Amino acid sequence: MFTTAAAVSFFLSGATAFLWGMTMAQDHALVRWRSHEHRYAILSGAGMLMLSDDTSAQAGAYWGGKTALSKQTTLLGVTVTTWALAGRYGMHVAVPHVYFSVIFCVLPLAWLLKTLRRVRRKGSGLCLHCGYDLRASRDRCPECGTAIS
Q: For residues 38 and 52, what is the distance between their CA atoms, to the nearest angstrom?
């Protein structure tokens, strides 16, 4: 199960890095959906992954880009912007792609470290489970009871 999760995470990390590179030259609308009176979108551009209330963005474009910016907050590269225009409101959240790449790399790195530790222990005559020296043992590890393979 852990190996499968690490493989999926590795794939997502690569896909995020690829998307990051692609969007440095051109913006992309990845997903759009509707919910009651609002339309939402997940966009990718300028090295950022953005969740936006698409209706509000179109309203701002329709009125010549004249939106009343009510609040913009940036913390550690993540920007949250809220605005209002003619009774409509919207929110836009932008997160750098690199954050997703780093998050998705955690499981593959843990898997790699675990695999390297097992290979090193097996080559050194140590128990694969606890690392106990097995040179004087034949059937089982005297420390943890694991069968010697």
A: 10
Number of Cβ within a 10 Å radius of residue 80: 15
| Owner of token pair 């190996």 | 3
Phi, psi of 32 (to 5 degrees): -135, 140
The Cα 5–Cα 114 span in angstroms is 14
Reported as half-sphere exposure (CB side, CA atoms, 13 A), residue 53 has a value of 19
Phi, psi of 11 (to 5 degrees): -60, -45
The two three-digit tokens of residue 122, written as one number: 């097996």
pTM, entire model: 0.62
Report which residue type is found at 40.
Y
CA 126, CA 111: separation in Å to the nearest integer? Answer: 19
As beta bridge partners, residue 67 has: none
d(CA 118, CA 120): 5
Tokens of 107: 């499981």
The dihedral formed by the CA atoms of 62, 65, 71 and 74, expressed in degrees to the nearest 10: 120
Tens digits of per-residue pLDDT, 9-62?
A: 888 888 888 877 777 766 666 777 677 767 778 888 777 888 887 555 554 444
* Beta strands per DSSP E along the chain: 28-35, 38-45, 48-53, 68-75, 78-85, 88-96
